[in-house]
Amino acid sequence: MPTKSKSPAPRRGRTAETTNAKIEQLAGTTAELPLPHLSTNQGTRIADNHNSLKAGVRGPTLLEDFILREKITHFDHERIPERVVHARGSAAHGYFQVYKSMSQFTRAGLLNDPSLKTPVFVRFSTVAGGSSSADTVRDVRGFSVKFYTQEGIWDLVGNNIPVFFIQDAMKFPDLVHAVKQEPHHGMPQAASAHDTFWDFASLMPETTHMLMWAMSDRAIPRSLRMMQGFGVHTFRLINSRGDAHFVKFHWKPKLGSHALVWDEAQKIAGKDPDFHRRDLWEAIENGDFPEWELGMQLIPQDKEHSLGFDLLDPTKLIPEEMVPVTPVGKMVLNRNPDNFFAETEQVAFHPGHVVPGIDFSNDPLLQGRLFSYTDTQLSRLGGPNFHELPINRGVCPFHNFQRDGMHRQTISRGQVAYEPNSLGNGSEFRVDGDSEGFQTYPETVESPKVRRRSESFDDHFTQARLFFNSQTAVEKEHIIAAFRFELSKVDVPAVRQRMVDNLAHVDEKLARRVAEPLGIESPDAKAAAGQAGYREARINLPIEESPALSMIGTGDGSIKTRKIAILVSDGVDSASLKPIREALESAGAMCKVVGPRLGSVTSASKRQVEVDATFTNMPSVMFDAVLVPAGTENAKTLMANGEAQHFVLEAFKHLKSICVVGEGAQLLASVGVEEGKTDAPAGVVVAATPAQQLGENEEAQGIAQTFVAAIA
Ligand code: HDE
């Protein structure tokens, strides 16, 4: 039965509480609908918006048609170059608030005043794919935060993985060329599973630690809202006395870190390439504002060499068991952008955008980044005035004599465009040691100029092993499966061999397991060690495992915002459904009724049950769990429907919690899944009493609670 059209739900991320200084600033350049009338860009009102100007109705178009020319010309130039990396991204507005003053460590205002809500704009991205590639590919995720502080812009441009592939900026173009599509045929899109990436990786043992992370489930997050972020490099914090601490930044999601399984990720890439973008957008529209806690690992300047490895090496992390992560503040994303291009696409991040109190370390990768990010905006955004684009403007003014250039917005008054000056109305601008200004930490550097890598960067395997050791059995299996998949896509056996030879330095068994289905020899660590430029070195870590590196057990244990499919057809027992659905929703889950057609189905008691989606337009991979309600007819019709059968079987394969009530169990049995008869891991199938016995609310509550626990 067709249902009446619903008016759109109110946008909960659009209230007075979700505005801030940046949003108010942007309002000044926001255009609203409906338009009063149509005009050209020059404001000339248009009389006819369907027809170009022609010499006679069947004649050629006239060059004179300035309206057509303007429209087409603008269209012709709508595209700008996509980001050379991190082209695919999704973003949102929000705020950051520090819990208590961190003035002991930094003079940065946003980290000193707990009453201050600093506006932020956050862009998440994949790295390798083009701007229209799928969200759920195996890849590192970018995690860029622009803080619009009272003292200028601070960009924390990080990733969802705390280490990086390479140690020196010199190798970045090579890394990116190797992972992107191969230059001769332009394949594959958004995937590292091809020869050139693994050729490069296997020749560069320093990639090993990051490869372990990239092959783990971290690289296929369930949601952008459910992944950690890391500043990666070691930065410096400077307090008002000039004391320095090294710092590593961490973002921990309130909902915990969760991942897809690989088969699921691949299928979603086809069924809904915008899966992560949609998830972020919908959560914010629903008022389920994603939240992260900012944490810091702080190391006093004089303890720089106390860790046993080099904190300047971006292929190393500092285990939390060695230096705990101090929770510092929270970030909430509560507003979607108004316009994808103007905000998400034009936002320009740069690790060199810092404010007084935050400074760099000598990490050679970070040092290279400090050059690259302004440079890239010149070709991407078309000139040096990209800081004047609305999304990139600070909420505090900027004052200098930089002038002109493409697309200059500011109209600077006066005769003077240089400093120092005496003609600029008394503004002599002889700045020397302004204590309010940014002060670089006066580190002493007295060394010859050299083009060499520090020996303290030589060990490439100890932390890779630490990561592997710290994973649970399931996570380890996923890492092995990912290496097997990726390397099985490599055509040249010698590359596969070199890679597993490298892995033998991490863990013999891991390397052997990876090699098994790849049609190559057993791994040989000595062969890898024979490579040019390879220097064997091992550091001593005081720990063998770091539980904090596993994703298991993160988050608040809730099922907030998880999506539950309720499979229905005619004859569904809606009475048995109601209490379970209510319990799920009061635990924060989002239920969608999925049926054979849109509109509604008729329940066993002849009521209309509204259907939100169909088995095909929202397949099982779109959900976190499945509920099959009771009802003899419901079970019969679902069993006769191949799509419904596929739905539950696929959900089972992806280890999702499935709750079957009464006759609903027959649907699962029809695809070979029966409680007690299958080797389903605990929590995958929650079976409940037959419908006729489920009348009591108390029992339904019990089932619901078991289901909720299984999902969590
Ligand atoms: Fe980037 N990176 N990167 N990167 N990166 C860019 O800047 C670069 C690195 C990261 O959402 C580019 O505006 C070099 C590490 C993110 O807009 C470019 C090196 C980390 C984003 C660039 C690195 C990152 C970028 C492309 C090695 C994690 C997306 C477009 C020296 C800490 C930002 C742009 C956004 C984007 C260069 C290494 C994270 C070309 C040269 C390490 C999240 O400038």
Automatic annotation (TrEMBL):
EC number, as in UniProt: 1.11.1.6
Enzyme class: oxidoreductase
Keyword Membrane: no
UniProt superkingdom: Bacteria
Gene Ontology terms: cellular component: cytosol
Listed InterPro entries: Catalase (IPR018028), Catalase_AS (IPR024708), Catalase_clade2 (IPR024712), Catalase_clade2_helical (IPR043156), Catalase_core (IPR011614), Catalase_haem_BS (IPR002226), Catalase_immune_responsive (IPR010582), Catalase_large_C (IPR041399)
Domain Catalase core as annotated: residue spans: 39-427
Gene Ontology terms for molecular function: catalase activity; heme binding; metal ion binding
Record-listed heme binding positions: 83, 123, 172, 369, 373, 380
Signal peptide limits: none
Keyword Lipid biosynthesis: no
Protein name (Swiss-Prot/TrEMBL): Catalase
Source organism: Pseudacidovorax intermedius
